Amino acid sequence: MSVTAIVPRRRRRLALAAGVSLLALAATGCSGLGRTAVGPVTYTTEREAVIQVNSPSVRGCHRIAPAGAHEVENGTLVDVILYRTRDCTGRGTTYVPTRFSDVTAPGSGPWRSYSFVH
Fold it and tell me: Higher confidence at residue 59 or residue 5?
């Protein structure tokens, strides 16, 4: 083999490795856009209706029914933060780890929204 035949092979290998790396990087960067919290978030409203949301997006603020919820079960694979406001802001939050549930204390008011820790 001559030296001239080795140089193009190295360039092809480097170009192939760079292309594969860029493709993997692009796929990883976009994979989080549609990520969901696998499993259900189940809550009981103040009117005793049981509502289950299956695999909600991990992004953003999720509103609970207008009446609010007094019991929330996190059956997802991602931890949840519960809020007393409709826009996932303010004080009085409650942290509910994956596969746990929480019930409001008497007189504390219902939860009105939740978000995921990610």
Answer: 59
Spans of all domains in the chain? 38-114
Indicate left, alpha or beta for 13 from its phi (over 0: left) and psi (-120 to 50: alpha): alpha
Residue 96: left (phi > 0), alpha (psi -120 to 50), or beta?
A: beta
Q: Would you state the structure tokens that stand for residue 68, as one six-digit string?
A: 């609010």
pTM value is: 0.70
Q: Would you put residue 58 in left (φ > 0), alpha (ψ -120 to 50) or beta?
A: alpha
pLDDT tens digits along 77-100 = 999 999 999 999 998 899 999 999
What are 70's strand-pairing partners?
none
What class is the 38-114 domain? mainly beta
Output the pLDDT for position 29.
Answer: 44
Token reading at 52 = 């289950």
